[in-house]
Amino acid sequence: MSLHARDDFVAVKPPLHQSVGYVIVVVVGLIVAALMIYATRVLKKTVGEDNEKTEMFMTANRSVRTGLTASAVVSSWLWSTAMLGSSLVGYTGGLAGPFWFAAGCSPMIVFFALLGISAKRKIPEAHTLLEIVRIRYGTTAHIVYMVLCLINNIVACANMLLGASAAITALTGMHIIAATFLLPLGVAIYTFVGGIKATFLTDYFHTFIILIILCYFSVKVWTLEEVGSVGHLYDLIKAASARNPISGNHEGSYLTMTSKNSIMFGILHICANFGLVVMDTSFFIKAFSASPKAVVPGYIIGGISYFAIPWAIGTLASATVLGLEDNPIFPTYPRRMSSTEISGGLVLPYFAITIAGKGGAVAMVIATFMAVTSTLSAQVIAVSSILSFDVYRAYFNRHATDMEVIRWSHYGVVGFALFAAAFSTALHYGGVDLGWTLYMLGVLTCPGIFPTTFLIMWRGQSRAAAIVSPVLGMATGIAVWLGSAYALHGEVSVASTGGIAPCVYGTVASAFSPILYSVVISFVGGLQNYDWADFRKEKLAFEVDATLVSEEELAVEHNDPEKIKQLKRWGRIATYWTIATFLGHWVIWPLPMYAAKYIFGKVFFSAWLIIAIIWLWGTLFVVGFFPLIDGRAQIIAVVRGMLGKKPVVEAPTTRSSGASSTEADGIKTSGHSVSEVNVVSKLEA
């Protein structure tokens, strides 16, 4: 199914004045930026987290705990696309759409726990993925993967901005180009000052607000007289299936998992998202920023929690819109939504307007703003890290100081924020929207999945294979994508290349052909048999304050056999969870339902939706309250410091990659960071 034909339609009058859009996008954005800047200064004053030091700016001294890591993982995937896109595929494919959207996200987030802990164990001083590439394969490979990562970041940002700006424009009447350029403004400011720790804090704040709004929607919808109950909503969807059956669904029903378009989207989505995760430098930065014992549980908890967001809100919003589309309370009545509105991601905004009027519109603008700025922050810090570490430090100044690296990071923050807005504007004027980028992005993001995984997990991949296979994979994917579009639709255009079938074929070719290329080239040219110990020969870390680094991180960097053994155990746990998550979300749960051609009954539909909503509220706890519980020691330290009762911390010692062992430095802890142990001891005193 293609959504991208531009049809004539009468635009819905925005329920809010455009001034509301500017207030939220500009004023609220600047307020949030000011709060994050203030928070980073308080952390520097009270617990010594100095963002003028590179290790703190880029990796938060590798000490972020499980709760904040899990929150950041959820935030990294809580794109505006996750809310808008899951509702879009629910509208076009029925209840199967949001499920496959969610199932296309959780497995690879959990998989990254394995990739992250493996990278952390083998090269604990790294800041970015590309540093690992350069050390193992040299300059040519480094440049190839730099291009792949930048393509990933650019496409991801365009996807976010196109959907978010369209939604904000529909709700407020704000000019879409103004929204596109102003959305990154606050992001650039607080990321410029606070670095990765500001990103973690903003991730937490934004995601907490978004989950509160989504949970509010999950309650508010039942107060609407036209909906009333889950059972009545079921009746509304059943009637919608009779009025407008879906081609490719069993009996044309919205109430079935037997949906050809939805399962094709599921295949497309899981491949594309593997590319977005593996080739997104921000995921590696967050893994390197987490303490060793927080990486695996943080990513597993975050990945499982995230599943509820697209599943619950996509199901609820699309079901309500489908059920009430022929009701006078719906914004587009008496007509159905046009393909342009659907592809622009307006199913969820129209849902919010329908159930809560102007208040729902305001909540939707805030949620969209929070989602796009939070995820943009991660993308901006990722690109700035590439510019500072993988361009400036690698090729122009190998002995760069903290100040010089951070200066180039600042250039990257500002430059990429402007470029992302300009690129998204160009796509908009070229007729490209959220639906098109949602379908095709995997063609460009997937070629590096397996070569990058082999980089960290397989000794045998040769240098030639690492360089050539992703390039051939991208060429194969683009050729299959464009060729399929022409074969199926008779032309190569925005409309034909945005069809789901060409995008599925191109994405699968782009993702899996590099396996063949890499294995064949490696065996033909000779396996490398890389020694993982070689990763540690090049010192990458800057000097940092040892009182702010966990005992585990120090032990890993000093190659403590016991700690390395523990990390290998975490790796096994991550492997088991990856397999279980994939089988659960992709095989055991959905495929029997697809094969059974089952159409949901009222009781089953009620259970389906209620479980999704309960899961969503559980995610609210994980995102909103778990980080507070997990980080209570540092919170107490900050509060006491602000009250003038700053705990007495031993004189800070510094370490570099060649520092002596933890015990020799006089640092003895029991699973907590040194600063937390000192804080707790003073509180007990």
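Next protein, fold it too.
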Amino acid sequence: MTAGGLVTGNRAGIGEAAALDAPERRQLDIIRRWGTVGALLMAVGSLGSGVAPVFSPLPGTPLLSLFVRMPTASMAVVWTGMFMVVSAWLWLGRFARPGRPRLMTRSQLDRTLLMWITPLVFVLPMFSRDVYSYLAQSQIAANGQDPYELGPATALGVDHVLTRNVPNIWRETPAPYGPLFLAVGRVISMVTGDSVLPGVFLHRLLVLLGLAMTVWALPRLARRFGVPPVSALWLGAANPLVLFHLVVGVHNEGLAIGLMLVGLELALRRMPTTPGAPVTREELLWIVLGATMITMGAAVKIPAALALGFLGVMIARRWGGRFTDLVRAALLLLLVSGVVMVGTCVGTGLGFGWVETLNVASTVKSWMSPPTAMGFLGGGLGLVLKLGNHTDSLIILMRLVTQAVSVAIAGTLLWKAFQGRIKAVNGLGAGLGAVLVLGPVLQPWYVLWAALPLATAVLARRFRVFATTASAVIAVVLPPTGSAFDGRAYIVPQAVTGAVVAFALCVLVARRQVLPLLRPDPLPGSV
């Protein structure tokens, strides 16, 4: 372990694995086609089960309106596609496993990812309606109003076409997103106006820009920390959670995480691995540039700011590892991030109101959030014991306790990274995971904040098996509609049953090609 938490011997010590042999290339071709068919099924099924805008052209369109009238069948088609994409990703993993003598090349993985993403670029949003909130909040900013003071219903009106698409729980709430994101969204709204579908498409392009940043940064960071680049890309950029919830779901985490990862790579670009060596002007310039990018990521979504702390640890260890070096690094990053953030707030004209709206999401009480779930359980126990209904108070208390715990965990990880006991990037992934899992709201795509940094630095088989299993399970459990079923709860089990049967039939029809992929890889893996 070196001063920056980098693995010195592994930059070259990763070694270049041999290319796939002819049978493996044929298997790779089957995996690509299998996943592409799954993505195409998701695109077709989204016409009936996607989160279409309130005023959708689909019901009046010949042929396409058929999917709208068959929501259960459409959802079954989407779920079949989801099963195919996830299974293709799992099969692809055998050719990206660290320690395997033969790995797929970067270009083979890039082409596979491109084949799977292309059909998903043009689908209706699924899994969430957040993109419609983005459009409404961006339009508020485009109108010259303050999106940090007014919700869509107040600023645009209840009957406005953009407000109608926003979920009811968010119609009265101000924007919880950073000024950089809303400034870019304001430009999109100026271009698209009240046209919903073009606005959705441009916001998806923004997410794809963030994904391109991630694809650029992941292999470079992985090489620094001793992980094969294709292994990091497979677990990170090709992850079904990325495809489903960032690309299809159009979540701005894609842009925020991309900026954060690019910032880390740029800051480390000219940082030597020898501690205590003289600091050059070029090194400082790259650190400033990297810190600027990370701060811009935080100006989209605030969790990216935690990367500044772990970057500071790497800089301090590079400068000598003394406590005074840590203070110097902290002051440098504080100055850079402060200037960039203030410049962003003032330059966009949106001000600092976003600081007061960061807790807007906490108004939602979801069982997916551990502290909220504990509050519900405590409240239920109080009712059983006839102590009264104290659910709301217990939820508030548990959120305060778990947030304090998450701060303590992040602080401990920072100190361990400074001492050289863990890699700083591992601490970043674990810290982000703790902050988000113990936060007031937890969504499936939040997992990516932890998974993507960890994909660049962790070789341990146990972690990669856990991350792979968790990603695959989480990817298929969330219904694609992103909305309630209005009393028609039977739709989901019927759709899932149909999808399981359809997927089994696909495997049966293609059994000669697929069955070899189901056998365990005989080649030894890494620990």
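About the second fold: The chain is about 65% helix and 0% strand.
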